[in-house]
Specification:
The chain is built from three helices and eight strands, in the order αβαβαββββββ. It is an alpha+beta fold. It has a single domain (3-102), classed as 2-Layer Sandwich (Alpha-Beta Plaits), CATH 3.30.70.330. A four-stranded antiparallel beta sheet has the order 1-2-6-3. The longest helix has 12 residues, at 35-46. The radius of gyration is 19 Å and the shape is elongated. The two termini are 26 Å apart.
Length: 115
């Protein structure tokens, strides 16, 4: 699946807004998507580093209209934790020289609240 098929929409609630300050973002995802596919899709779409993915299946509610009773669809929710402090990395090159590089990842998802 391509990343656009995996991530369907952001879930915006009071709880998800509170978790955004800790680097946790909530998305509605495809029911067949795995945690690895979700992490790769978020990294590709939003250019962030994903640390953790928690998923859950939300059961549909029973609704009633007059005499007819029906059920809303089940859907899958993913809470994605991103790296909010992408600092510099250093490593030793061939000559024993220390090389520092800055990470190329963002520290938040700008498009989440419609910005």
């Amino acid at each position: 699946m391509i990343p656009e098929e995996i991530i369907i929409a952001p879930v915006i609630t009071e709880k998800s807004n509170d978790q955004m300050q800790m680097g946790k973002y909530t998305f509605e995802v495809n029911k067949k998507a795995t945690k690895v596919e979700i992490a790769n899709a978020v990294e590709k779409l939003f250019n962030v580093k994903v640390l953790n993915v928690n998923t859950m299946t939300v059961k549909g509610k029973t609704k009633r209209v007059r005499y007819v009773e029906g059920k809303t669809s089940d859907w899958k929710k993913a809470i994605v934790t991103i790296d909010t402090n992408p600092g510099e990395e250093s490593y030793l090159s061939k000559g024993g020289k220390v090389v520092k590089i800055s990470k190329k990842y963002k520290d938040s998802i700008d498009k989440f609240m419609g910005a």
